[in-house]
Design brief:
By secondary structure, this protein is α/β, with parallel strands linked by helices. It has 5 helices and 7 strands, in the order αβαβαβαβαβββ.
Length: 177
């Protein structure tokens, strides 16, 4: 897997061994970032980060900083190796633990990536819908990735929805000020 574009375009990313994590396919990442457009100066949260591919792609494309939240040790190892290898540690923070707990902090974000394990996505919808608004800046966008057969149904206003095979991408927006 590689970073698609930006200052780190073409650089290789490590992924966790085993089947516990499922990296976002390159064609899906490319389409997603095309829909998102400019990210200059954005503050990003990558929940259920896995190897960090989405947050790293955002940093490569101009985001100011990113927080990555992951609980699985193999994925955390790959994530930390990627941030170190790409020299992003000054612009990145890694939180090892629960995604919902990370939303209860003081930080506010311009862009949030949600890519929970497909099997748990639908069950997380209510809790994520409740906790997300407190972590968002006015006009922030939330990108969710889930299985199209069991999509992550957030209560935030939906801007866009696209299907790529079995993958459903939804872009939501927080209320503007």
């Amino acid at each position: 897997m590689r970073v698609i574009a930006g200052e780190l375009g073409g650089r290789r990313l490590m992924t966790a061994r085993g089947g516990a994590t499922r990296p976002t396919a390159a064609r899906v990442r490319e389409a997603l970032f095309s829909m998102l457009g400019e990210l200059d100066g954005a503050v990003v949260l990558d929940l259920f980060a896995g190897s960090g591919a989405l947050g790293i792609e955002a940093l490569s494309r101009g985001a100011a900083r990113a927080t990555f939240v992951e609980r699985a040790p193999p994925a955390l190892d790959a994530l930390r190796a990627n941030l170190n290898g790409l020299e992003l540690t000054q612009r990145a923070r890694v939180l090892a633990g629960d995604a919902l707990a990370a939303l209860r902090g003081e930080d506010k974000y311009d862009l949030v990536f949600l890519d929970p394990p497909y099997a748990t996505a639908a069950a997380l919808a209510e809790a994520l819908s409740r906790e997300l608004p407190g972590a968002l800046r006015a006009g922030a966008r939330v990108v969710s990735e889930s299985d199209r057969r069991s999509p992550l149904e957030l209560t935030l206003p939906l801007l866009r929805e696209r299907r790529y095979g079995d993958t459903m991408i939804r872009i939501h927006e927080s209320a503007p000020l």
